[in-house]
Amino acid sequence: MVQKIRKAVLPVAGWGTRFLPATKAMPKEMFPIIDKPVIQFIVEELLEAGIENVIFVTGRHKRPIEHHFDINRDLENHLQEAGKEEALNSIRYISHMINPIYVRQKDQLGLGHAVLTSEPVVGAEPFIVSLGDIVLEKGSKTLCDMIDLFNRLGKSVIALFEVENREVSKYGIVKVKEIEEGVYIVEDLVEKPSPETAPSNLAIVGRYIFTPRIFDKLKETQPGKGGEIQLTDAMRLLLEEEVLYAYRIEGKVFDTGNPVDYLKTICEFALKREDIREELLPYLQETISRYTQLIDKP
Ligand code: UTP
Question: Which atom of ligand 1 is found nearest the CA of 15?
Fold first, then answer.
């Protein structure tokens, strides 16, 4: 009998150095995509997949995340009295639905170490890991499909997405064998290969379901670059004794962890919203033509 997945781990303790100085006192996971923080998109995706127990691995300067998921009675009362129903609903539903649990990573020793920090709370159960800065397109069925796969196959499942060949050196890339449309057995994992040596153009992308065996493997993993314990290294050890499956994401993946991709994410989400698109689109068109003229000038 396959154990039911009831918990998700969200590592949010990283330094966010690519966003300094903005991240000196504010977590990048709290940066807004228009009017909603990045981390709320990730929690909403979990709630849609039926997961309410969310274990945040937090660290220094991450308090705003805890405040965000608290119930704020004063603000709720204020909005109620002011008749601001829409604003009230926007803050109320998420904090009433989620069951947040906070675990502190004492030292930022890497993503693998952050996941290992959650072991006393996860226990001997399969669990989801969602990265705190990767947002999937609204309505993505990735997590639901991954949970179904886990229920069917009983082993760890990781999410992949297709990248351009010239981009493979930015990601962890897998060697795989396809067993059904969009579902694979992972044969090997390579961290940041060159386009010439990459075994595929399928990159590991921030959504994972692990059996609890990953914790043993994380304990065996030697620190790599910068003294960090890498999740990919533990996954490679896991591969030696368990089958590891992979699922190819349909639709877009938004990386909000660096300034350029964060801006692209905001543009994309803003243009999807009718109330914003009307003003933003002509502005963007005019700006693009102004800059194109500037760049084209000899
Ligand atoms: P990243 O490498 O994208 O985040 O880790 P970072 O280290 O915060 O960012 P940079 O590279 O310095 O700009 C992916 C996720 O893992 C978490 C991060 O918070 C992020 O959500 N993480 C990373 C931890 O929780 N602990 C760590 O020690 C490292």
Answer: 8
